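Sequence only, no structure available. Ideas?
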Amino acid sequence: MCDCRVNGPGKSSIAIGGPCRQHRRMHPRLPSLAGMSATALILALTASRLPATPSPDAISGHYYERESETRSWDEARVDAMGRILLDQPGHLVAIGGVRENAIVEHLGGSLEKWIGLTDSEATSTIDSFDHSSLGTSEAGDTSDLPLPEPGMEPAGGERGAGFQWLTTEPFTYHNWRAGTPADDFGADGVYMIVSGEWQDNPGGGSIGQPGPFGPVLRQSIIEWETELEQERFRIVERSPSAGFNGGTGSIPALASAEALLALPAGHPDIAREERADAFVISFHDPDLGGGLFDYVRSPLLLDVVGTNDDNIAWRATAWVAIPGAGDWTFAVAAGDTFRLEVGGNSFVGNGTLPANPPVLTRASTGTLVAVAGGSGDAFHFPAAGLYPLTLTGFESDFFAFNQLFAAEGAQADFDAEQFDLVGDEWNGGLALAIDPLDVMLRIAPAPGGSGYRLNWNGVPGMIYRVEFSPDTLADPPAWSEISGDIPGMLPENSFDHDPDATRGFYRLVLAGGIPTG
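Reply:
I predicted one. Tokens follow.
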């Protein structure tokens, strides 16, 4: 029985005879790529998770949660610190740029929410925390002063002077509402208004700011600075040039999206391209929204702030670890037609508008009408193993979003207590695993040198030739033979590269396996 404090005091998640749902983990097993059969069904992606639970940003891996209970700013600060996830305490969110601001703005819908910015110098009567230890200072009403230069912290005589993040990270991104921070009634707490801009307000009686009409209570956004060491989806997004699709420069259908994605890099029909590795698939256009809003939705890679993101083709690929034989149901929320392939199975779905019925099309059954929000399919897996997964879609116009979920069993409805984002292992989602033919290695600088140590788990009795994929590293080192007999940390390889510029996860392509004898 688990008595974790993942969701804070009084919010433990208990499961009899096993770990709580938040600690359920799926682990990769040996590959099995046998054929599978599928049973078609239609899902209603209309559920919302209440109460909310943390979910990860697709790119950074940081977890965020909207806390629906209203508190003063200082009470929310203390509450966030008591939330433990992956052995880390939470904190009121610290916003580092436009992308993260959009994540916070749209998490849980358009609501006012406390963020972790303050200029308080007071000591809290709740936990005796001295806010001045953050480096804060009272500058009063700075609303009429000029903003600092982009990427710079505010100094004396600039708007927002004296404010600091609770995490003490640099305060270099600023999104103040017009006429703020005005320091009305000594306001030391900062919240985000529905437009995504910031405003200061009294932070609570515990720091000497009860508010002129009683305490100001709001919901809040909690962040965990997690470092998730797991495999990821590989994502590519492309937008077409004016000459694509017969000179229309448009992507009106899935077939044209797949044609654009099939072009070689640098083709003149490709106007823009972005690639990334993502922990989960949960993206949208922040200017239009769409998707299930109680999950973190990251801006599309090709998002242009302030515009509707139209005519984008996207594809996500990964290997997913199925933990045992049986049925799994995959559900997709998307703004336009998509194709999901898992192992030897596939289905095509359509979720054009959240207010209109999407359409699920299968060759064997024709066209079926589903309820608004997305569609899904149940696949049977004959054995545990690693199965290739590809999700392809596009954005034509209006709503732009894509999210990928899975649940064990053949499900007929989207029950948020059963479905999890694929890759969100902490919440019980299916794990992403190392592709046997496309290996991810963790690279860290070798002690005392400019080379690398490679964290490698090979197959005993084999020597592998591996090389850095040129699309993820601008100046790849020469290939090297690595023995599969030596798991874990290998001796230093003499790759002449700046380790600080290249640490992290990189893609390596397996060129061949040679028996050692």
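The first helix runs from residue 73 to 81.
Hope that gets you unstuck.
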